[in-house]
Amino acid sequence: MTCPHCAAALTARERTGQVCAHCERPFALDPKSHGRGMNDLRIRRIAAAATDDGRLKVTVTQLWYLTRTYSGAWGPTPAHGIRPFVRWLLALPLALPLFLWSAFSDGLWATLTGAAALAVVGTAALAKRRTPGRSGGSLITPAESRFRQLMDDRWRSTYGRLPPGVVDDGPRAPAVRESPVGRPAAVILCTDHAVAVFLRVNGIPARLRARLVEAEPAAAHEALVDVPGRLPVVVLHDASALGALLAPLLRLAHPDRVVLDAGLPVTAVRNRRGAVHRVSAAPPVDADGLRAVAGLSDEDAAWLSDGYWSPLAAVPPSRLESVVTAAVKRALTARPGALGAADGFLTWPAGEPTPAGTTSRTKGAPAG
């Protein structure tokens, strides 16, 4: 690896204990110890790009998604094969009479019945063994807990703070002070904590004269109780089943209110190369309901009903900023009931198709 201080190419022996043997200065990460792609220069480079060279601040969660070296997701697989009990329950009643017939017969009949009995037993013994079903899952390398540990322990102990422009959004992090908004003109309803911290720390709601409301999708209706009904609502959510249903259900509950869906659309990530795909452990949502309520295509509804989802926090920060800005401006000029299911998706990029029938796998920024 390359020393982040003197740029010397270091062998394993020249970087023992995360200290450069040439300049004798410590560094935080070593790919050999902390995993592929985990080195100071790469983390700094990705953080600089994410913050637009210092113009924006980003969260540790956003940096984690951007610095991942691998992500993959797989759907559930049904059980297949025959249970041993069933195999022998069928085979023994057939094989036993044949063995008896062979034992008490002579000549050709004994040979044929004996061979048939052996064939039945052999088929039962060699039949495909039952493989239990497997639930879907996903994998991101490094894991979020591991990445946070590296940032909190190794990086802070080496440099005294997180990379420039990166803020902690963990559960123990202090709350971010939000710039005051005198008379808000709109509401931004955000269901992702990392994205809400990103918006607050960059003063985006105040700049747009919007009130930021953070809530889980299931609690979104209650979170809007204290918000004046005249204010338009811009909804930010993951590309998930609950996220896709949120804006349509809010429109039904508040027919006199502008509700603009600016969440991450499934069409932008389902077949997009490089998008992060994850699998939820929550009970599946019926595909028919997703089509009827959210107006999704058959393919998108099936993808979500299989448990797949994609996090809003994985969207590049500059793209996220531009989408939120455009969505609030659009909501301010819209009329109640005039927005359809596709409105709010106009600023999101279309997905780049991937070969059908393959496991969802994406790689993060180059690990070099």
Number of helices: 14
DSSP, total strands: 11
Low-pLDDT segments, ≥5 res = 351-360
Average pLDDT: 84
Major beta sheet summary: 4 strands, parallel
CATH hierarchy: architecture of the domain at 178-358: 3-Layer(aba) Sandwich
Approximately how much helix is present in the residues? Answer: 25-40%
What is this entry, summarized?
Helix content is 40%, strand content 10%. By secondary structure, it is α/β, with parallel strands linked by helices.
Describe this entry's structure for a reader.
It is built from 14 helices and eleven strands. It has 368 residues and is an alpha/beta fold. Among the domains are: 87-117, no CATH class; 178-358, 3-Layer(aba) Sandwich (Dna Topoisomerase Vi A Subunit, Chain: A, domain 2). The strands form four sheets. It has a four-stranded parallel beta sheet, sandwiched between helices. Helix 10 links the parallel strand 7 and strand 8.
What features would you highlight for this structure?
368 residues, alpha/beta, Dna Topoisomerase Vi A Subunit, Chain: A, domain 2, four-stranded parallel sheet, three-stranded antiparallel sheet, flat
Set out the fold topology.
Elements: H1 31-34, H2 40-50, E1 58-59, H3 60-67, E2 70-74, H4 84-103, H5 107-126, E3 137-141, H6 144-159, E4 166-167, E5 186-190, H7 193-201, H8 204-207, E6 210-214, H9 220-223, E7 233-236, H10 241-253, E8 259-261, H11 266-269, E9 278-279, H12 287-294, H13 298-305, E10 308-309, H14 317-333, E11 360-362
Parallel strand pairs: 1-4, 5-6, 5-7, 7-8
Antiparallel strand pairs: 2-3, 2-11, 9-10
Helix pairs in contact: 4-5, 12-13
